[in-house]
Amino acid sequence: NRRRLTGQFLSESLLLSLVGGALGVLIAWWGSQLLLTLVQSGADPLPIQVGPNVRVLLFTFGLSLVTGVLFGLAPALRMTHVDLAPSLKEGKGTARSQSRSRLGQLLVAGQVALALFLMIGAGLFVRTLQKLEQTGAGFDAARVVLLHLDSDASNFKGPAVERMHRQLEERLRGLPGVQAASFSSLNFNEGRWMVRLWPEGVPHLAANGKPADGNQVGSEYLKALGMPVVMGRGFGLQDTPQSQAALVVNE
Predict the structure, then answer these.
(1) Spatial distance between the Cα atoms of 87 and 41, rounded to a whole number of angstroms
(2) Alpha-carbon span 104 to 74, nearest angstrom
(3) C-alpha pair distances (Å), 26 with each of 29, 32, 119
(4) Cα separation of 63 and 14, whole Å?
(5) DSSP 3-state assignment of 242?
(6) How far from each other are the two terminal CA atoms of the chain, in whole angstroms?
(7) Which of 41, 50, 72, 88 is 20 to 30 A from 229, alpha carbon to alpha carbon?
């Protein structure tokens, strides 16, 4: 009867939607961990929580229920209102059933077209990433070892941090095979540090300052990364807090 047919369609659709939602949550959790692994620059994992939380789980569960009810109720209502007598007598379906069949074919064709469009877009995205990996970044990272240092954890403050950096640089330069050693406050994929620059003769007002991305680095930083100096000089040991301020501007 109609109730049994409706119950069968709903149970099948709900089962499929809930299983799909559960698999989606598992893929989301695994994919988020994979993305963090791809973007981290060292052995230590990034302290970012990107996995699904309770709200995401509740939303996914509710969406799976709504999807199962909608896509299970629609075919159930359609099948329970079909009159099979004309089809059995004439050997063919009615005009209404034929129009619904054409609509279903159009929906399937649309889904295939959208899936193909997404696959092409994903392929182009992967190709773009491959080209970006082959693009020169302006420095040589092939033989560079990156170490993270937490001066706050060791209770170094003020001038003690500078002395620690200089001692580490000197010891690292003395190791066999080391050509240059330096430190920096930020790595290239670890955010930005904005500074303001005022041209000569311009009042030091916030509105007149020109924003720029900056970084605090040690001596031999450009040499360690293989960055060529086009004009002027790079940083050296003569650049101290007591000397005249020095900066290097990129092109």
Answers:
(1) 67
(2) 12
(3) 5, 10, 22
(4) 11
(5) coil
(6) 78
(7) 41
Rounded distance, CA 179 to CA 199, Å?
A: 37
Print pLDDT tens along the chain (251 aa): 778 878 888 888 888 888 988 898 888 888 888 877 776 665 666 667 777 788 888 898 898 888 888 888 877 777 766 655 555 555 555 555 566 678 778 888 999 999 999 999 989 988 888 887 777 767 777 788 888 877 677 777 777 887 888 888 889 989 999 998 988 888 766 667 788 888 888 888 877 888 888 888 888 888 888 888 889 988 887 887 788 888 888 87
In sequence order, what E strands does 81-239 have? 193-197, 210-214
Structure tokens at 153: 């954890």
Query: Locate tokens 């209102």: which residue?
Result: 81
- Amino acid identity of residue 52, one-letter, is P
- Can you give the pTM of this predicted structure? 0.47
- Which token pair is 63? 């969406």
